[in-house]
C-alpha cells in the first residue's frame, strides 16, 4: 500500500506536499534532484521542528524576576508595536501601564478582557473576541519605555538610566521617520499568530486617548534560537541564532540590568528593534558561494566556513589552500562575533516579516531584528561596524528603529514600571 495516498485514491495533504517537492517541482526544474529537508520523515513529508511550546502553555505575568518574551523560549509568531504618548502628565502614563499590565496578565492566562457578548444590547464588547476560543498559546507581552518617557513631559528626567538615550545615526541607516522611535513598545509573541494579534489589537484599543500607534511589524516566523531550540532560518535561507545567548550566566553578564544607577531597572534590560528590509530578488539571484561568503557560514548545514558542523567554533584565523581567510573578514559573522568585539554579546530574538509586495511588484519582506542587552552601546558598537563594511549591506536596508528600556516584571498587584514613579 502506498504510504502517500488514501485507499480511495484521494491524496492526503502530506502526500500532496510530497508530490509537490519530489514530483512536480523536480519536473518543473527539468529533472534536478530535490534535497530532503533536515526534518523530513520516512515518507518524505516535511515535519517542522517541534520545539514550540504546547498551545495550553500560560506564562505567569506577575512575580517573575524578568518580563516574559526575553528569556522565554522563542515563540513562533510576534507582533511588535511602538506608540507615541499623546498625554504629558505622569498620572495618565501610570494608568496606561497599570491597565496594560492587568490586561496582559489576563491574556497570558488565555482569558479575555471582559464579556465578549455583553448581556445589554447597547453595550460595546470590552474584548474584541477573536481569541475567545483559543488557548493561551504561550503568549508573552513585553512592555518597553522609550527615551521620550524621560523628557520634560513626565517629570522623570532624573530617573533616566545613564546609558539610555535615542540611538545615534548609524552607518548605512536608511530609516523612515514613520518607522522610527516611539515612547512605548509592546512585543507580543505566541505560538498562535491570532493570539498575539488579539493582544496588540486590544492593548492598542485600551491606549486610545493616551497613546497612538506609531509603527508596527508583524513577524510570522521566528528567526532566532533560544536554549534547546532548533535553529530556524531567516528569509535568506540561512540558519539564524546558532551562536545566540543561551546560558543563564550569559544572560546575567550581557542581558539583565543590575540596577546600579537606577534601582527600578534591576532585572530589566534594553530592547533594540530594527525593521530590516531585504532586497530579496537580488539575494535570490546571487550565487551560492557569494551567499555563503556574505554570512561566513554554509547554507544547508549552517557551519562556519572554517568548519563542518553548525556548532563548530569558528576559526577566524584559518586560511584555505588559496591563502585566503576561510571566513572572510567582511562576512557578517566575522564582524559580529564576540571574539572580534572584545567579548561583547547581545541576545537576538528576531522574526521574519513580510508586508506583501510593493508597488513595483517587488517582495516587501525582511527581518524584524529584536535584541536585548544591558547596555544599548553594545548594539551601537556592533551596528557601527556592520553598517560600514558588512557584505550583507548589499542586500538589506535598516528602515525602522527604536530603543526601549524594559523594566522587570511587576510584583503581584503592581504594574510594569511602577517603581519608576515612586
Ligand atoms: C547589530 C547587530 C546585528 C544585526 C543588525 C544583524 C542583522 C542580521 N543578521 C542576519 C543573519 C545572521 N546573523 C548571524 C549572526 C550574528 N548576527 C549578529 C548581530 C546582528 N545581526 C551577531 C552578534 C551574530 C553572532 C555572530 C557570531 O558570534 O558568530 C547569523 C549566523 C548564525 C548565528 O550565529 O546566528 C546569521 C545567518 C540577518 C539576515 C540580518 C539582517 C537582516
Ligand atoms: Fe546577524
UniProtKB/TrEMBL annotation:
Taxonomic superkingdom: Bacteria
Annotated cofactor note: Binds 1 heme b (iron(II)-protoporphyrin IX) group non-covalently per subunit.
Cofactor: heme b
Residue runs in coiled coils: none
Parts of the chain that traverse the membrane: none
Domain Dyp-type peroxidase N-terminal: 67-220
Sequence ranges assigned to domain Dyp-type peroxidase C-terminal in this UniProt record: 231-409
InterPro entries in the record: Dimeric_a/b-barrel, Dyp_perox_C, Dyp_perox_N, Dyp_peroxidase, EfeB/EfeN, TAT_signal
EC numbers: 1.11.1.-
Keyword terms of this UniProt record: Heme, Iron, Lyase, Metal-binding, Oxidoreductase, Peroxidase, Signal
Catalytic activity entry: heme b + 2 H(+) = protoporphyrin IX + Fe(2+)
Compartments in which it is found: Cell envelope
Family: Belongs to the DyP-type peroxidase family.
NCBIfam families associated with the record: Dyp_perox_fam, tat_substr_1
Function field: Involved in the recovery of exogenous heme iron. Extracts iron from heme while preserving the protoporphyrin ring intact.
The name this protein goes by in its record: Deferrochelatase
Source species taxonomy: Bacteria, Bacillati, Actinomycetota, Actinomycetes, Micrococcales
Amino acid at each position: 500500500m502506498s504510504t502517500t495516498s488514501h485507499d480511495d485514491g484521494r491524496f492526503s495533504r502530506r502526500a500532496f506536499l510530497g508530490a509537490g517537492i519530489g514530483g512536480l517541482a523536480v519536473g518543473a526544474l527539468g529533472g534536478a534532484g530535490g534535497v530532503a529537508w533536515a526534518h523530513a520523515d520516512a515518507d518524505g513529508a516535511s515535519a517542522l521542528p517541534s520545539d514550540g511550546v504546547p498551545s495550553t502553555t500560560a506564562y505567569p505575568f506577575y512575580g517573575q524576576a524578568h518580563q516574559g518574551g526575553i528569556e522565554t523560549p522563542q515563540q513562533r509568531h510576534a507582533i511588535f508595536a511602538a506608540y507615541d504618548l499623546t498625554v504629558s502628565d505622569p498620572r495618565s502614563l501610570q494608568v496606561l501601564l497599570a491597565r496594560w499590565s492587568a490586561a496582559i496578565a489576563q491574556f497570558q492566562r488565555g482569558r479575555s478582557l471582559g464579556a465578549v457578548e455583553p448581556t445589554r444590547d447597547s453595550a460595546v464588547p470590552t474584548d474584541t473576541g477573536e481569541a475567545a476560543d483559543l488557548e493561551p498559546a504561550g503568549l508573552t507581552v513585553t512592555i518597553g519605555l522609550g527615551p521620550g518617557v524621560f523628557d520634560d513631559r513626565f517629570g522623570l528626567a532624573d530617573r533616566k538610566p545613564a546609558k539610555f538615550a535615542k540611538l545615534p545615526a548609524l552607518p548605512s541607516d536608511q530609516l523612515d521617520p514613520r518607522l522610527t522611535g516611539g515612547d512605548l513598545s509592546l512585543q507580543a509573541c505566541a505560538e498562535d499568530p491570532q493570539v498575539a494579534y488579539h493582544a496588540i489589537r486590544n492593548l492598542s484599543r485600551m491606549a486610545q486617548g493616551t497613546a497612538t500607534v506609531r509603527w508596527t511589524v508583524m513577524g510570522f516566523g521566528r528567526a532566532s534560537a533560544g536554549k534547546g531550540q532548533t535553529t530556524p532560518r531567516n528569509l535568506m535561507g540561512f540558519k539564524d541564532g546558532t551562536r545566540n545567548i543561551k546560558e543563564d550566566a550569559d544572560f546575567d553578564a550581557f542581558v539583565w540590568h543590575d540596577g546600579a544607577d537606577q534601582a527600578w531597572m534591576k532585572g530589566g534590560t534594553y530592547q533594540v528593534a530594527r525593521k530590516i528590509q531585504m532586497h530579496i530578488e537580488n539575494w535570490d539571484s546571487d550565487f551560492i558561494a557569494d551567499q555563503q561568503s556574505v554570512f561566513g557560514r554554509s547554507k544547508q548545514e549552517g557551519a562556519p566556513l572554517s568548519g563542518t558542523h553548525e556548532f563548530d567554533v569558528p576559526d577566524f584565523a584559518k586560511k584555505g589552500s588559496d591563502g585566503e581567510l576561510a571566513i572572510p573578514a567582511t562576512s557578517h559573522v566575522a564582524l559580529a562575533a564576540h571574539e572580534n568585539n572584545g567579548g561583547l554579546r547581545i541576545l537576538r530574538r528576531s522574526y521574519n516579516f513580510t508586508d506583501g509586495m510593493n508597488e513595483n511588484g517587488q517582495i516587501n519582506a525582511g527581518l524584524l531584528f529584536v535584541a536585548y542587552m544591558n547596555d544599548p552601546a553594545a548594539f551601537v558598537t556592533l551596528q557601527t561596524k556592520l553598517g560600514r563594511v558588512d557584505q550583507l549591506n548589499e542586500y538589506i536596508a535598516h528602515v525602522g528603529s527604536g530603543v526601549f528600556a524594559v523594566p522587570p516584571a511587576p510584583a503581584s498587584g503592581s504594574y510594569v514600571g511602577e517603581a519608576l514613579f515612586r
